[in-house]
Design brief:
By secondary structure, this protein is an alpha+beta fold. The chain is 30% helix and 28% strand. A five-stranded antiparallel sheet has the order 1-2-3-5-4, with helices on one face. The longest helix is centred in the middle third of the chain and has 18 residues. The relative contact order is 0.19.
């Protein structure tokens, strides 16, 4: 970390990605690098897992572009995924079957994140939805 940078200073990054499964890997590596540079490597494993689920859903269940958004403020890391589809995310009501190929992502986010949510977007040229979760620094 640069010597004159305050680790408590807020920051935000947005990585716009094309509609391809490779984008999930790019997002994971980028997130890990950002957290290391900001002195938050202890958050990387969980943040990477949650970002993979959010971005994976955006790529898997929508047709257009997407973006990974990372924000650090007040000791909280917000990991979010924007996509161009306004359809609300729908977490499964129960547990996925042991051999299920899908259905674990949002349940995993709900179980591992401090909080999560979503909202539709219609301003600043962004349309679609933003699904996010938060992790504390502890």
């Amino acid at each position: 970390m640069p010597q004159n940078e305050d680790p408590g200073e807020p920051w935000e990054y947005t990585l716009y990605i094309p509609h391809t499964p490779r984008a999930v890997t790019v997002c994971r590596h980028t997130l890990r690098h950002i957290l290391a540079l900001h002195g938050l490597p202890h958050l990387a494993d969980l943040a990477e897992l949650l970002a993979s689920e959010l971005i994976g859903n955006a790529v898997r269940h929508t047709k257009g572009p997407a973006a990974l958004r990372l924000r650090w403020a007040g000791g909280v890391l917000r990991v979010g995924a924007w996509d161009a589809d306004r359809t609300p995310p729908t977490p499964p009501l129960g547990l996925a079957a042991d051999d299920a190929e899908e259905g674990r992502g949002l349940n995993l986010v709900r179980a591992c994140a401090g909080t999560w949510g979503w909202h539709p977007l219609t301003s600043n040229g962004d349309h679609g939805k933003y699904v996010w979760c938060e992790l504390g620094a502890a």
